[in-house]
Fold each of these.
Amino acid sequence: MISDITLGQFFPGNSPIHKLDPRTKLLLTVAFIVAVFLANSPLAFFSLFLAVLTLVLASQISFKVILKGIKPIIYVLIFTALINIFMTRGEGEPLISFYIIKIYKEGIIRAFFMAFRVILLIIGTSVLLTYTTSPISLTDGIESLLSPLKKIGVPVHVFAMMMTIALRFIPTLIEETEKIMNAQKSRGADFSSGSLIKRAKALIPLLIPLFVSSFKRADELAIAMECRCYRGDKNRTKLVKLSYKPKDFLWFAFGILFISLMIALRIIPQHISGSISEELFNFLFFKI
Amino acid sequence: MNKLEIRNVSFIYGKGTPFERRALDDVSVSFESGKITGLIGHTGSGKSTLVNLLNGLYKPHGGEVLLDGVSIWDKPSEISKIRYRVGLVMQYPEYQLFDETVRGDIGFAPRNQGLSESEISERVAEAAKFTGITDEMLDKSPFELSGGQKRRVAIAGILAMKPDVLVLDEPAAGLDPRGRREILGGLSEYVKQSGITLILVSHSMEDMAYYCDNVVVMSDSKIYKAGTVDEIFSSAEELEKIGLDVPVISKIAARLKADGFNLDGKLYTVEGVKDAIIKYLGGSGR
């Protein structure tokens, strides 16, 4: 079923991560993304891994759910890893040489770390943000963080509202798609076999009703909002005001510490981190 | 003969996720051909899930769905053939219309079946007749029609497959009384003429009492009770115990009985109660 997709879905809960201010989580996510791209040595990856593990444990989200979130990108990962393995030219003798195909140690290292980096990136950001933050508080956080831009005339509130609505309607659209697909399947429509052109044609009975109902729904929503006197952020007050708590500052401190660590690992002279990398690689692949 | 039967069927939504929810729990029931069977139950009692299992949109996690004694999942690659034999009209089917003309939309399923153009137009004409769609409407765009007309086009789209079993999930929801009567009346006429099995999901006890021969009551993912309309509606207390209503006319009859009027007969349709009162008064009718 389509509704099995979990990427970008909120899991209500009561964990320390759930309770953080959305702004804290947003800023930590940015820091985390920077950290992921700073990492270039095994030691740095190891610390990243520990950080992600801590986040996952703190969020109390089951590993099963997290693994399911990675599933959709598994083929992309394998594909890029293969490209990295075959296309990277290293110094020294290739490990395998077969006509034009030459596989170097560096290629394997690079492919491995690339895949690792993407997986950590996805787990980290989804645990920090999408799994543990409700779409509403997420957009509240974005709006609050971007509010300085209002001074130069950027309609921050409108963007935030648009995002809230878009996020809110993703599950509805998935449900709707499934419903229409089932209705057309009941009339003998076939979405999963035949040539590419046949399959593209088979989508027409799905897409037209989907568009029609989406436009209708958007229209109804706009009318409902106007009936409740919605007029953007003019004089609009908030039911729940965001406020930083002591635990937010604690997590900020963690974040800053972690980023400093990653920067430090990055500037450590290459030959040191390089030799650690070599040793760890040999340990991982050849000793076992 | 029992055409469609389900045996010990279980179904779980979101199996293996934190959102796991059991929708059907060891359900067994059979539907007689040539009869209209009503399916009633609360929202979330498993009615719609059951309906989606009947034509193989969902695959049961346990048990079997049998059509003419053969499991519909015997040959999974031929499940679309089952879907032509068990026609399913979903809730609010007007949202599935897509073709440029009503004619094309009704002909969508027969075209998928691979019929010839002449057969298709024959079937479209026949389905249109039973659902009260005029020739003039056939050449319009389905998006120009009113809600009730769209609903009829959607039902005609399933009738055009000439299914052996027809399943309708709330076919009259959101229609005015006249629209309800026309659609349900047309369908019961169709059952009488073609002898197919009709399964009707509805919240309206009045419709159930009026149109159905048999009734299956679902509650809490299980079959609560199944039997003829007489059997089901004569025990109003039992239905009320699981939070379902009985037809208004049954309530009136029950009050009359409580006040000492000894009524007897089919006390769940207006006609039945009328006859019972006349009989009680000892009159001849006029």
Amino acid sequence: MLDDLFRRIFVVTILTSYTMSGFFKSSIGRKVAMALSAFFLMFFLLQHLSINILSVLSPETFNEVSHFMGTNPLVQFVLQPILIFAVVFHFVMGFVLELRNSRARKVAYAKNNGAANSSWMSRNMIWSGMTILAFIGLHFVDFWFPEMNTKFIQQDWSGTMEGVEGLRYHHELVEKFVNPVRVGAYAFAFVLLGLHLAHGFTSAFQSMGGTAGRKKILQTIGKAYSILIPLGFITIAVYHYFNH
Amino acid sequence: MDLTLKIWRQVDAKDKGKMVDYKVTEISGSMSFLEMMDVLNEQLVNAGDEPVAFDHDCREGICGMCSMYINGEAHGPDRGVTTCQLHMRMFKDGDTITIEPWRAAAFPVIKDLVVNRSAFDRIQHAGGYISVNTSGNTQDANATLISKKAADTAMDAATCIGCGACVATCKNSSAMLFVGAKVSQYALLPQGQVEAADRVRNMVAQMDLEGFGNCTNTGACEVECPKGISLDNIARMNRELMKASI
Amino acid sequence: MALDSKVPKGPIQDKWTEYKNHINLVNPANKRNIDVIVVGTGLAGGSASATLAELGYNVKSFAYQDSPRRAHSIAAQGGINAAKNYQGDGDSTYRLFYDTVKGGDYRSREANVYRLAEVSANIIDQCVAQGVPFARDYGGLLDNRSFGGVLVSRTFYAKGQTGQQLLLGAYSAMNRQIARGKIEMFNRHEMLDVVIVDGKARGIIARNLVTGEIERHSAHAVVIASGGYGNVYFLSTNAMGSNVTAGWKVHKKGAYFANPCYTQIHPTCIPRSGDYQSKLTLMSESLRNDGRIWVPKHMEDVLAIREGSKKPTELTEEQRDYYLERRYPAFGNLVPRDVASRAAKERSDAGYGVNATGEAVYLDFAASFERYGKEQAKIHNIQNPSEAKIKELGQAIVKAKYGNLFQMYEKIVDQNPYETPMMIYPAVHYTMGGLWVDYNLMTTVPGCYAIGEANFSDHGANRLGASALMQGLADGYFVLPYTIGDYLADDIRTGTISTESPEFEAAEKEVTERIEFLIQNKGIHSVDYYHKKLGKIMWDKCGMSRNTEGLKTAIEEISALRKDFWQNVNVPGTATEYNEQLAKAGRVADFLELGELFAKDALVREESAGGHFREEHQTEDGEAKRIKEFQFVSAWEYKGEPKDAVLHKEQLEYENIEVKERSYK
């Protein structure tokens, strides 16, 4: 009985991945893949911001949640790899598509008035994306590499550190926002993220074929999302800069 | 008005081509853009020079033949018009107008401003039809009811004139608005359902093969489309392909 | 050669069925060995190519444009007639047949028209099956509109782009066959001659318009579907590339050319704005339902308006001449196309034209704004509405009816037709004449067929609105595929036609020499210079109204212009490249011959009928006066110069319709 069920799931999986692999090789399949990874990343951003807001509202809760996220095996060993995969995939695919698309026009226009028919954001996703990539590099140096070092090389899963009372996460966060240059870079990157999202949000829905008839509402949500998310992150950074 | 024209001249497909400056004088605002080009060509012929080659035919905005990139925009600065319907009153005395052919790897230049858009035809060959014999032995036209909404939306998609402005405008030279319009027309009608899955798969595959770029949803095509074909058609095509693939 | 129309015997309603039951058929296996060339990819050529390929023939299709989808059928706006009687308003095959023959002023062949009416209903079924998005009502059924003053609603439409949708339907059917390899498509190719071997059409010489290469193509039959010749007038609503060359070459090789003088001139086009004008744009004649046509009564107002010191809206009712209402009190602004066109010309010729070129009259909606506005005010129970309110309410109604036309007008003319009257002027838009064909649609050259606007057959001296699309598709989908089989049944053992024969050799040589001549000539005038001159002669003397003296002068002038052309035309560039001027030169050279035959035909036809109006032959009301002795088709045989052409007559018999005066009272 159970054996049969597994066999069926197996067959269906193989079959779908076979037909789907053809799908993902097509231009539309690729943009759907971009959209799927984008959805995941947009959900991640929302989740990340929610936790970061706690650092302003209640440092204790922030510490507790951070400790949970940092030590929970499901988050660490399932969600984190998926996240990393999504980030890497989104960037790699973005570059691949950009490269292919540039090859579709071999001679450039002597005069092109892009502003007449499309937004700056939509035409410059690759630049806003690269800025975000650079920021993620900084973010990794600031937080992720030290975390990995503490947990996997030093094997310290306690969430505490010398000279800090209780859990260390809030302290580490505040420490980073002492430097005004970092806060500035942080804010700049989030403005670019906002611009990236301003096009990316509705674009992902369009790629999934979901905008027909719901264009207006999606545009409104997209606008709100692309303003509120970066604004939230920037506000937190600025708050800590002035309150450390 | 007197104008300076910067026009792309290219002898044939192999030539490298370059921009050349011309002057035209006493252009009236009620001339169409192509009539202004006629004036230039008459001037060139009378001076013993080669006239500028450009595609044109019906000159009433429906055949889809005319195709110029004017001052950085497909079919020029006006909206909802083809180049033949663009009037010179959109320009001012003393203006410099840059005129280029559609630029896309899939639309190679034949001569000057004339490009080869056969790629569009080949995409249509791949599935832009309903497989019904033209024997006349079909059911009565009113046998299948089709809602007014579906018929009207299909009609809106079907108004595409195949000019290629979408490709020319798109920063990625993507043909998705063109293909999406055809896929949508049939997807919205009951007659098109039988072959829907194969149609979208084959047309998209041919589109990719032709070397058009991918869509990044900038929406420029919809703005520049002389017939106002909606981006919804691209979304619908995406949906149709997903449906066909799962 | 005596003309044999080959109309089958028997009652008219049985002719086509009986005919189909007894023709020769070609076995499917043999169809594979038979090639057919189709020149032109409009409604007629596109539908014929698709159907012949589907039947199994090897089809080679030719279009001068870059894709079959660009053919000028695409520009037809209004709709397509079919005797479906969906509205239950009494329509029938007979009624459509009757309307078409009467509309054509009793100058078309009964049997052909009846067949057209008979297959019309099937066209709609076919097109719907192909996915043509015809307009529908809220219940999901097909919608109809009434058109061209007939008494029933039989016109199917797809917004104002019916021609486009039908053409794309035929194009899609072609695409299916191109994908199967049954149609070989030659885009950007122009047919420059037909090749006749042993008395039969066996191929064509075509020029690749991109490379300039001259190509030989052989086939067992050649179908000409290259449209009409309205561009002989230079300015018309035709596409810039529309030309008579394919038909004319066939004519020169033995096909008779019928009724060249039957031209339809459409009254509601946007006027010319200057000498640079290349093309005229048509607006649906339905505008005349709500617009009043006028010019100023006094010359000083005309001049003031032209120089811009006065606006038309400033003229009082007394200062206006509603000349159609004045001359035709019964029908007023709704007189038939030809009468409305001639009246506009008469006023303009008298000096009352209202724009800079002097060739425009007003079409004024102010009265409709007021009428509809008052009606709306009543409906909405608005007490004592202001004038502005009335106008606003009325404009909304007019906008709902003609909004797209008003917008198009504003784009072209740059005047707001809601605030100032529209300017209109008649323009050439369809030619009823064409290659003479028999019941089988075969020309007098065996194996050479002509379909759609390229032939003369179904519209007589005047075509009804929404009938051109019907005829093109009827010929291509449902008539030619049968009749051509009857002919090709004899060719199943012929095998591939060689292109190495002396006939192909000779035809190619002739084409090449002509092209070489044009290129080498290095004269002083551009091709357009001649085309414009020809157009002016045609418009002035063979236009909306014609007279003996004018036609005689036209013949001389065209003949002289042709001589001048061959001496002084200047074609830049070479023969071995993309050279639009060269292509155009060849077309204008043919127009210069056709134009003269046209004038000759008009001169010989000593009567007025439909689009052909001879000033000497009119009733007191200024209406066309038909003359019984001219109840025939003029079919012209080529004998060198157009002046030497020989007239053959096909007498027209009406057994199922009583020939009456067209009356609009």
